[in-house]
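Lab meeting notes turned into a lecture example. A postdoc, R.K., suggested we walk through two folding results consecutively so the class can see how the record format repeats. The first protein's sequence and structure tokens come next.
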Amino acid sequence: MINQRNTAQLMPLFEAAPSLPERASLPSSRPCRLLLVDDEPRLLASLCALLADSGHELHTATCGSEAVALLEQMPFDLALLDLRLPDFGGHQIMDVMNRRQLDTNVIVLSGETGIEGAIGALKRGAYDYLRKPYGREELLSTVENALRQRRLEADNKHIAQQLERSEKLYRYLVDSSPDIIYTLNAEGRFSFINDRAQQLLGLSRSELIGNHYSDLVHDEDMERAYYVFNERRVGDRASRNIELRLKSAALRDKGPAVENTLVTLSFNSMGMYGNAKQTEGAEFFGTYGVARDVTERKRAEAMISYHAYHDILTDLPNRMLFKDRLGLAIMQSKRKETELAVMFIDLDRFKLVNDTLGHIRGDELLQQVATRLKAALRQGDTLARLGGDEFTIFLPELLNRDDAHVVARKALECLQKSFTLAGSEVHISASIGIAVYPHDGETIDELLCHADMAMYQVKGQGKNGYSFYEPSLHEVSYQKITLEQSLRRALENDEFEMYYQPQVDRPTGCIIGVEGLMRWHHPERGLLSAGEFLPFAEENGLMTPISDWMLKAACRDLALWNTQVEERVRLSLNVSPQYLDCGDFVEKMKTALNRHGLSPSQIEVEITENICIRNPQYAIEQLNKLGQIGVSVAIDDFGTGYSSLAYLHRFPVHTIKIDQSFIREIQHMHAHYPVVLAIISIAKGLNLNVVAEGVETETQAAYLEQVGCTTMQGFLYYRPVSSSQFLQLLRKNAARCA
């Protein structure tokens, strides 16, 4: 009989004991731990002997308190309990195990014949109930079955835990995905969708599950959406990267425009079937898909595309877009048999503004110009910026040329008003060339080229105006191109030659100096003067190599003259401002003088007074360097430029040459010619030499001598001659002026 007093004493102890941690799973590879509880030593020993060969770890207890102590000390896989023990029996031990949630299977071994003991054991969770005496095989089989079931339960529990962890992991991945992941049933209704849909579309799962996909798709994309959301193919044949626009409630508060309520998604989808390995004959369950938000990418692509066809500074169409639109307009004009006009606009004086106020103010000026020009156009006209200060316009469907006249005049008028830049008022103008389709060209390039030619004609006629293309301009342009090509070959073929025009002392008639003048023996056009080809050389970057040739040739000729005549003559050379701007000009001069053994005093460099408006300080530095090596400086064509007398006073100048335009005005000996008198007075006041150019009549020579200018150069005395002819003149001069 169970001792009730001992049980009452033990119960508080059992209830206060902490529960053991959850038992680990039961790997089949390790031996099991068994607890054998019986108060009969002989039976307990027999039970141990019976289970000794099983390979399990066996522990024994002879009373209930000992058994509970062992159960609390270590985990057991199986306990074999006798119902009757000295202190408290198996039922009470099982009650303690249940309260403490001790994970141990129980087989009850009892000699009781009543059914109550078995029922009580099974109610408390016993695996089985064996009545004593039991057979050996029965016991071993029951123990093995109990342990096998425990292994199965442990395996199932482990699998369930793995499944639970996997489900949590995959749900976390699905809900944390940057993409929308969804499934549709066979009817096209959402059966699953992850949390990303609410972030992108502003719609919760409850608002989407059960609804048809068409509720989300933009109307214009519905046809493509049908193939995406009803995809039945799998594998490589399934839909890939199909872009659709979906309606988004998340963006509605960001702006009223319809585009702001749309997001663009790239869809990949495939069909779902009952048999995952085989679709033929398998039941179609619906569609599985993944959708990635590409809205920002599409906006970035649109922005890149926009900038590829628009000028960043003015936001006008660029050359590429202008040509594209012009090409379409030409096709329409050809179909409708109408005219269109192309205008080429170049801003006058923009470079001066840009160089004076800086590029930032220059950019502001271009932006203001673009705004004004757009306002002057008709609806349907296209304004573009080709680059720099060049703009183009095309006017589609001209009724007549008067329309182009009107737009050109408006463009000029809007640009004549002052511009405000950094608090300063700036004035500019424009030169506009116009070509009309189909009379002036039938292609884009022809129209632009001819409009450009017409614009340059305006530039040459004084700027600030407009002109239509004329066929004669093409011939002039062709001649310029031909001349430029020939000019490049002239250096290679040694077609240049130096000619020399003597400078004469009027009272004695002796040659006291000479001016070097370039000539070009053109293969087709004959002998060309410098004025016929040097402007083209300046425009096309050929001034430096041509000037290098001139310097070497002139010094070579001067050295030859020095060996032939005793009298030393001073040689004047015209130097282009471009050549003077070269940082190594003075070094080139020194090299040429040293190479030919010439005295610097024999060389005089002629410059135009306009040189001071380019970079006066740099020009002064270069001229001072020339003076330091002994080369003198003359101002050529004095009185025709824009330099101030203050700069003239600062220049290391030795000679002033009166331009022939002023000399040509001298017609009468006793008339009054104030400009000539003023230039001579300036020269005398600054203690400078003065030379009159272009003297062609005796009246001009006599008048100049009377007012104080005795050094003259012109056809009255000598025309320009070759080096060998000038050498003969020097010999005659030496004999006469000895």
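The second example is placed directly after the first for contrast:
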Amino acid sequence: MNTMTNEDALKAASATELAGDNATYIESLYEQYLQDPDSVDADWQAYFKEYETGNDALHHAIQDQFLLLARNQTANKGGAAPAGSGSDTNCMDPRQMGVQKLISAYRRRGHRRAKLDPLQLQARAPVEDLTLEYHGLSEADLDTVFPTSDFNIGKPEATLREIIEVAERIYCGHIGLEYMHVTTSTEKRWFENYMETNLGYIKFDKEKKKEILERLTAAEGLEKYLARKYTGVKRFGLEGGESFIPAVHEIIQRAGGYGTKEIVMGMAHRGRLNLLVNILGKNPADLFDEFDGKVMPEKGSGDVKYHNGYSSNVMTPGGEAHLALAFNPSHLEIVSPVLEGSVRARQVRRNDTDGNLVLPLVVHGDAAIAAQGVVQETFQMSQTRAYTTGGTVHIVINNQVGFTTSRQEDARSTEYCTDIAKMVHAPIIHVNGDDPEAVVFAAQMALDYRHEFHKDIVIDLFCYRRNGHNEADEPSATQPLMYAIIKKLPTTRTQYAQRLLAEGVISEGDDKRLDDEYREALDKGEYVANSLVQEPNEELYVDWSPYLGHELEDDWDTSVDIEKLKEYGRRMAAMPEGFKLQRQVQKMVEQRLAMQTGEEPLNWGAAETLAYASLVDEGFLVRITGEDVGRGTFSHRHSEIFNVENGEMYVPLAHLNDTQARFATYNSLLSEEAVLAFEYGYATTVPNALIIWEAQFGDFVNGAQVVIDQFISSGETKWQRVCGLTMLLPHGFEGQGPEHSSARLERFLQLCAEDNMQVITPTTPAQIFHALRRQAVRPIRKPLVVMSPKSLLRHKLATSELEELANGKFETVLPEIDQLDNDKVTRMVMCGGKVYYDLLEQRRELGLDHVAIVRIEQLYPLPEERMVEEVQKYANLEEIVWCQEEPLNQGAWYYLAPHMFRIFGPQGDQPRVTKAHIVEPVARPASAAPATGLPAIHVRQQRELVAGGLGIEVDQLK
């Protein structure tokens, strides 16, 4: 790169490009330079470098210099600079540049000097670039008048002292704004205007201040009431963070004013009971009954009171709005993607493409947001096609301590707990929780930003815990200095009430009346939430009643008229005019058309896509997400087709006809936990839909084990939340090693109870067709876990006829398919998945007509009656073998063994079993890993497995 001297720079400044009528051009050129220095000529790079501020400040920091240069050029046009004058002094006062840099530093770094900690425990390092000396200024310059440029001080020039006073008030008060990491200039200017318009003063009228005090009274009042009534009982109270309640109240009311119809909230324990009572309108009497142990779930296990969700309607300036608080386990941040999924579903239902009608509000703890990986995953989802919800408002209840860990070097590696949000350039508003007006102002700014730009924003509410992690803790044992200060510190409400008394906003009588009225309302068990709608508009709710109260039936008609199936096939094969396919894809489309019109047997992909076509035609939304689901990891789905000439994507299933329901398929980011949680939240919100998450390999599902344990398997029994989510988990031992063989079938079966979910191992295209249709058309919403095949996607024997789709249903048990002499059968092999075809081929090759092979296609709920029917067909049956590919300590055996012994063994109690049978497993040896990674060992184990299943020696195999 060429370099320029100051003299050269001044010559460039005197050139035509810097003439007064070209100042706008120079401004845009500098903006371009800030984005990418190499995008401008080398001479301009060198020139701009002379004014480099060492940070990412916008061009307005030097804009005055350009205009000044332009004016000088215009004034001296045609003549040289005055003789004897120095070029630098002729062009500008260098102190002016220092002032502009100082203003930029306040905008960029003022938050590091803001008064954020109510306890004043923070020992913050001096901020060098907020000093005069750093910018070539001194105290001697304090009374010098400088142009204020675009610093919104209300006048074109001011003394340096006044500029600093205003900058301190705006950027170093009780609000510390981090926004200079935001990448767009428009957003940065928006924040500057928002913060600087009132010169750092927060101007609320008397009524607004009274409203804030009333909500603070409610927040503190509930905690004091519960502390007296239930001393020492865990409630994870909000003491020390009471400003959270007026902040949420402000967000809801302001969002309603923008036309928002639903606000969906998620949060962990701290302050949850307070939110339930004072914001969502839960009756305090109901909460007291829970504390008293008077509330018992009508069914299921129930959950602790600070995990429960709630919903209600409130009145806002824009009309009635629906509030929903998501159920949340103790896994804290896992609720974030669940909530986002629920929000996305609501937005789709309302055709809310910009996210204005449904608002997500997520509440974090400081320790959790900084440490839990699902936070990163959820932030990363925020602007992606499949998962965006138009921006989320995040509130961090920053206790400055996680349970007992308060040392920053132990809790995180970043200065702020909120630094994780910078990964998506989310602005962060740090605010002192003991200044309720600053907190409400921060809430307004956050909501306004989200509405304007539809991106995430974070409020970091600096507060403290007055009573420790929970009410049974003694926090001074681990934080003695912190709690010595807390014990002497007046509550937030007390401080604010004194402030309003001093301002004359309220009287002593007003203060006492607010406190007394709230306590009396609690004593009477009255509702204490503001603006609660007692008779809510039911149109704001989704009616789930058609999907409740049903027995989990397996026998369900899922047939489809064969002519309709053929028509779906033809429509899916019809590409837009001029749409050129890749050669292999073109061949696949042609082959699939032959299958779907009955000319050839169907493979897996052909049957699966027909299931989706039939469902969207019948009005069921279909949504499929996961890594590589558009094509399918194993290249079997091809729901997304691409034009080889321009890369345009076409989704045939989304263009069947004008009246069909929505079909959406999205390749997800490389996440399991957050994505699966998102889809769970989506599926619990939209009943008339088939929501599918597919793992790239089934093994990867263990990255989302929290979602499976805390939501999918137990959400209904804990919270009465029904969910029809479908999980497709590629599973099968094919020599691909320990990480690409097992979807951990045993873990799902261990979690099965109370008809909580369904686990199937389908082996034919017709079975997956009917299983997917059954999941949607049957008015029952239970999670469906599919141990999905890999090699069977194109196996020569794993095919179905179109008539099987048109006339059949999902079969929980598939009987022996060959014509055996039933009287000769002495051995029955029960199995599921790919191993069936290995057994079948060898049985046929060897002519072992005494061995019947029966497929158990549904493992939970276990179809015992159907299993008995198959056994009863063979009068001379002696042995029943369960054959599985997985090691003995994995797979289905440990789940099945007690059932099979009970049904078929000597201790059997099934009345239709005429005699006891030998029941034994055949499996790979028990193993710590799911599978071997060595091909030779895999082949040997597979041969031993098949031989053992058929009851022969390995050397007898073909």
